[in-house]
Amino acid sequence: MKTSRLFTHEPTPLIGLLGAVFLGAGLVLVALTTNLHFVGDDWEFLRIPYQHDLVDSIIAVIHRKLRLGRELYEVAVVKAFGLDRTVFHVISVALHVLVAVAFGLCLANTFPNRPRFAVAATLVALTLP
User: Fold this and answer.
1) Whole-angstrom Cα distance, residue 33 to residue 74?
2) pLDDT tens, residue by residue, 39-97
3) Alpha-carbon distance 120 to 129, whole Å?
4) What is the pTM of this model?
5) 3-state secondary structure string, the chain?
6) Which of 5, 17, 22, 92 has the fewest CB atoms found within 10 Å of its own CB?
7) Quick check: 3 pLDDT over 70?
8) Cα dihedral across residues 22, 24, 25, 27: positive or negative
């Protein structure tokens, strides 16, 4: 089977490059957006870490039993950086790109004979919200 020159080696550098490009594009979009804001139920989730200390916030989140992962993430970001919306969005974009690149690398290691599949799946993961 003949492969293109792009995939003569492993797809890891290309997946890393895709991650860097999407991270850069996401950070540029955050920088260009003049009105970053929290909407809807964000304030409901952000109310808990704003009103309580770290341990009480974690306990309150666990007792609510709603979107546990998201609420714990928001508690950690608010406690570390306050309610700075720009930092919150930058961290969210960086975390999304990191997870998508890790997903692509896992696929590249799981299916070493299908590098195009791993790169395509990484692109899909990067573009989904």
Assistant:
1) 21
2) 667 777 778 888 888 889 888 888 888 788 888 888 888 888 887 788 888 888 888 88
3) 16
4) 0.71
5) CCCCHHHCCCCHHHHHHHHHHHHHHHHHHHHHCCCCCCCCCHHHHHHHHHHCCHHHHHHHHHHHCCCHHHHHHHHHHHHHHCCCHHHHHHHHHHHHHHHHHHHHHHHHHHCCCCHHHHHHHHHHHHHCC
6) 5
7) no
8) positive
